[in-house]
Amino acid sequence: MARRARCRPGPVRRLGRKLPDAPANLTDGGVANTNIIFHAGKLLALEEAHLPTEIEPGTLATRGYHNYQGRVAGSFTAHPKIDPVTRELVFFGYNAAGPLTPALSYGSIDASGKATRFERFEAPYASMVHDFIVTENHVLFPILPITGSMERAMSGRPPYAWEPDKGAYVGVMKRSGTAKDIVWFRSEACYVFHVMNAWDDGHRIVADVMQFEEAPLFPHPDGRPTDPEKSRARHCRWTFDLAGNTDRFQQTYLDDLTGEFPRIDDRRAGLKNRHGWYACANPKLPMFGALSGIVHVDGNGRRLGHYLLPAGDTISEPVFVERSKDAAEGDGWLLAVIWRARENRSDLAVFNATDVEAGPVALVQLGHRVPDGFHGNWVGTA
Ligand SMILES: [Fe+2]
Fold first, then answer.
1. pLDDT band at 302, cuts 50/70/90?
2. What's the gap in Å between 149 CA and the centre of ligand 1?
């Protein structure tokens, strides 16, 4: 299940220690703590600096790294995309030529679990790339200026830092093409940890993301913190015109709410969606407060409803579960973990996904606190 937290991604590591029951071949301290997915019959725990860690369904015993019969190596994003039509899994990795390098890897795994491609290419500069964008026909690689620098790291300065002068690049590639065909679009500096969804719209590509004006969690190269007023994410639409005569892409904020952890009904991944959800901060509380509510939006980011917790309580990423395989888009539930501050314990909350305003329709009241976490997914038995 999902957990609440700001996403503090990978390679600055030290997020956790190797688990005591981890197999001996997990020698580099991977904690597999960012996301968990189910694809081609395998339950895979993900953390972006490592290969997927296979988990045994039922017992949750750790089986070890899964490298797709030796065809995939190195880092592997915690945010791969599963094509809802073909069941193909599309992934990338950054630091693909070693720590703090500008190399990215890209690959795909077919519905049977076989690696069908794996290649590497150079990005404009070394950066932290937490998520990427996949549509029915395209894959997009955001290179945004939380930059990585071995020279800084070796001199005791921040290995990752906010360098807006580097600008924002997004590489656009056809899924049927190769890395040699990537076209780089540019825009004002920003940072994005998470993409809600994206789709092809004629000669355009539209991507809805949670965009920060300045990077959170990481300092300037000299160690100064970034501006907290700008280090908050808002729902934002990126538009790429593949037929235009410009290499610029457009960025348009869709709301002013502070939010993170966007999700959709994953049966619309890469296709135009009509529903989306994300965790939000309470706008009546101090602006940069913790995530304490859920927003339901339509396909253009317009709020259809929202729910706010009592002051002090916090909430995780909302995970969508469809009512049935053939239910209409958005017809189902949201699962989220709520931390009850006064009692210091957690509830697993179930919301009607199309009526979050009504509050949870069911609560699994836990006698303990569920620690903050990042992402999750529902895996049914059928
Ligand atoms: Fe994430």
1. very high
2. 22
370 DSSP 8-state letter: P
How far does the centroid of ligand 1 lie from the alpha carbon of residue 79, in Å? Answer: 7
Query: pLDDT per residue over 3-43, tens digit each?
Result: 333 343 333 333 344 555 555 555 455 789 999 999 999 99
- Specify whether the CB–CB gap between 293 and 317 falls below 8 A: no
Question: Residues lining ligand 1 (ion), CB within 5 A?
Answer: 7
CA nearest neighbour of 354 among 247, 277, 261 = 277
Q: How far is the CA of 206 from the centre of ligand 1 (A)?
A: 20
Backbone torsions φ then ψ of 173, nearest 5 degrees: -130, 140
Calculate how far, in angstroms, residue 71's C-alpha sits from the geometric centre of ligand 1.
25
Query: Tokens 């706010």 correspond to what residue?
Result: 308
Ligand 1 centroid, distance to 209 Cα (angstroms): 12
How far, in Å, is the centroid of ligand 1 from the Cα of 246? Answer: 31
Distance from the alpha carbon of residue 245 to the mean position of ligand 1, in angstroms: 33
How far CA 51 is from CA of 64, 80, 114, 159, in Å, comes to 9, 12, 15, 22
3-state DSSP assignment of residue 216? coil
Question: How do residues 37-61 score in pLDDT, each as one tens digit?
Answer: 999 999 999 999 999 999 999 899 9
Q: Output the CA–CA distances (angstroms, integers) from residue 307 to 261, 273, 293, 356, 360, in the order listed.
A: 15, 21, 5, 6, 9
Place of tokens 């836990």: 366
